[in-house]
Amino acid sequence: MEHTPGPLRVTFTNIPGTDSRQWYVIDSNGDEVAASPVGPHAFNAANARLIAAAPELLKALERITAAIEHNQIAAATLLAEKARTAIKAARKS
What we know:
3-stranded antiparallel beta sheet, alpha+beta, 49% helix
């Protein structure tokens, strides 16, 4: 595996003395996987959610692709629900 396995979660820290927050993506061991630059940018939170959802998105796509390649359309349809769950997590506000 070439990336940090999931599940990953997003945490935010308020930067003292500012209106800014910094986000961190944390793995299941509590280790930091990614962090935003300090700043009020609205896309920082969206980026954090997308990064945190990446392992589950990758897993869902790999399973759906394998099911389709083996002509297991019913299985691919069921696996699509896992993909939708990961997409919701990435888009959650």
